[in-house]
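Small ribosomal subunit protein uS2c: structure tokens wanted.
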Amino acid sequence: MTRRYWNINLEEMMEAGVHFGHGARKWNPRMSPYISAKCKGIHILNLTRTARFLSEACDLVFDASSRGKQFLIVGTKNKAADSVARAAIRARCHYVNKKWLGGMLTNWSTTETRLQKFRDLRMEQKAGRLARLPKRDAAVLKRQLSHLQTYLGGIKYMTGLPDIVIIVDQQEEYTALRECITLGIPTICLIDTNCDPDLADISIPANDDAIASIRLILTKLVFAICEGRSSYIRNP
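Answer:
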């Protein structure tokens, strides 16, 4: 795997609150190697280890994107949703930021059918055909289109299973993580002090509740993906 310098700054991570974990009562004992202290009942993450694993994750996504691999970013809780969409759009990745529909990956044939229905309805709307339908029929199809846009809009161009999945908040996205494990899809996961660090291929210890923390981690990963894509374009 290529080793590169990703400008991961401990002071920058502290300013973003990456080091703040959950309350000590809610911790997972398997996270003890990643915790450096406890302050006022809050576990404090070891940012040196965070930087190490974030760097490894950046190396992984750089190498993958430089070989034309496809990524899916998953983060559906309110604090993560906007950051996930912006990061994914910037790096031309697929994303899910509203709700993970069970079987989205493990039952891919059903997901493909839904995506085709979504694409067909979008074409119908763009062509103005929905406007020519009876009002009741048009209203039903518009509701279907709105529903599909909400839950599948971020993966509308996905034509197969992703090569790597980036997950924000292991606890919130546990179903998505289990589907990746079942299918053998490599995962990169933000893990707070209440998570299991052994489930993902690369676990990045970080505050998964603070918007600034989520945004910082995603920004580093997205930069590495974009750098890899530039390399892929230059050296097809």
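The mean pLDDT is 93. Strands lie at 20-23, 35-39, 42-45, 71-74, 94-96, 164-168, 187-191, 202-205.

Cheers.
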